Amino acid sequence: MMNAVSRAYVRGGAQVLSTGLKASGVAVNSMANRQAHTDLQVPDFSAYRRDSVKDSRRRNDTAEERKAFSYLMVGAGAVGGAYAAKGLVNTFIGSMSASAEVLAMAKIEIKLSDIPEGKSVTFKWRGKPLFIRHRTAAEIETERNVPTSTLRDPEADDQRVIKPEWLVVIGVCTHLGCVPIANAGDWGGYYCPCHGSHYDASGRIRKGPAPLNLEVPTHEFPNEGLLVVG
Fold it and tell me: Which terminus in the chain has less CB density within 10 A, N or C?
């Protein structure tokens, strides 16, 4: 049995414990409230909003106007982009066009009376040597009688000339691009000193490493005594 002193001690301890819990509870609640930031004010952006959208319960009568403005901006951007793309395409195509100097050299006119019979004269055309050979009757006869079956790049003489007395070829060896020497070689036509390719008086490969005949460019004789190449 507890005496009066013991009962008083127990009652005092209970009061102290109750008081401590209450004090602790107040502290916890106060800390929780501060951590939730309930004492902070929310910024008011009403000054930056349109009057028509401040009230969320009000019908927005200007939505169609804003849509129309958005469509207008998108359309204007599309038109501007199309014009910019057009300018870029025109600039790109223009950069690929031939310059005035190239167009001026696209064709060359040659006065044939300046080339004596039996001689080969070299001209510059489109940055490449151009051989114009005034062939003799003997050269024409010899080249016409060559069997095409004996040629590496079979091509008859009359397929390579428009007028029999005039041979027009580009002076670039078909092996590695060297410039052959005229009136030289085993067949008296052209000889490439780089690797020993021999061409006849029709510009056809007859000996050496070159795989093809000398190229015949597009040419014509618009008037007597005038040759136009290109």
Answer: N
Chain segment 92-148, per-residue pLDDT in tens: 887 776 666 666 567 888 899 889 998 999 998 888 899 999 999 999 999 999 999
Structure tokens at 77: 């951007």
Which residues on neighbouring strands pair with residue 166, listed in sequence order? Answer: 134
The reply to whether 195 belongs to the active site is yes
Flag whether 74 is in a domain: yes
CB neighbours of 98 closer than 8 A, spacing ≥ 6? 106
What strands, in cross-sheet order, belong to the sheet with 120-125?
120-125, 128-134, 166-170
Q: How far is it, in rounded angstroms, from Cα 51 to Cα 230?
A: 76
CA–CA separation, 8 and 2 (whole Å) = 10
196: left (phi over 0), alpha (psi -120 to 50) or beta: left
- Per-residue pLDDT at 27: 46
How long a stretch of residues is the chain?
230
Phi, psi of 221 (to 5 degrees): -120, 85
Question: Domain check: are 199 and 130 in the same one?
Answer: yes
Q: Which domain holds residue 75?
A: 63-96
- The one catalytic residue in 37, 134, 175, 195 is 195
